[in-house]
Specification:
five-stranded parallel β-sheet, Rossmann fold, 2 domains, binds 5-O-phosphono-beta-D-ribofuranose, 165 residues
């Protein structure tokens, strides 16, 4: 199976990404996590993107806050799918990072999830890999079934408590 790269602009972004790491582990997907900044280590970010395909990666996840250029800078240098996570950091509640991540010019898409949306980033990356991995597809379906069961259990519990009557 191809690996997923989880790149973050700063170690301060890591708490947002912990849910993605847990999910990738749960789905049995190999991944590598790195600190790699479009501003502080631009050459290393570029080199990572250029070599990602030959290094066995299938999807890149990039998380950054403020003027979040990481996802776009990676997307400029690879045709692997790039999933961007705008991170809430600083005084604008993540809107700055959301706009910087999502507003890519035509030709260089970044699949942008919600602010701090690390779980959906992991799931989207997994769904891309699942196109060529039947086992992973089954694990994703099982994960969804678990979410459905959890929602139904919550509904049963709410009804049982008579909270709506
Ligand atoms: C961005 O600046 C990082 O992705 C982080 O969200 C933000 C702040 O970084 P630190 O100053 O905490 O390292 O590049």
């Amino acid at each position: 199976m191809r690996k997923i790269a989880v790149l973050m602009g700063s170690l301060s972004d890591k708490p947002v990404l912990d849910k993605a790491f847990a999910l990738l582990d749960e789905l049995g997907i190999p991944f590598e996590a790195r600190v790699c900044s479009a501003h502080r280590t631009p050459e290393r970010a570029a080199e990572f993107a250029v070599n990602a395909e030959k290094n066995g990666f299938g999807v890149l996840i990039a998380a950054a806050g403020l003027a979040a250029h990481l996802a776009g800078a990676l997307a400029a240098r690879t045709v692997l799918p790039v999933v961007g996570i705008p991170v809430q950091s600083g005084g604008l509640g993540g809107l700055d990072a959301l706009l910087a991540t999502v507003q890519m010019p035509p030709g260089f898409p970044v699949a942008t999830v919600a602010v701090n949306g690390a779980e959906n980033a992991a799931l989207l990356a997994a769904q891309i890999l699942a196109l060529e991995d039947a086992g992973l597809r089954e694990r994703l379906l099982a994960y969804r079934a678990k979410l459905t069961e959890k929602a139904e259990a919550a509904d049963r519990e709410l009804k049982g408590e008579g909270a709506l009557s």
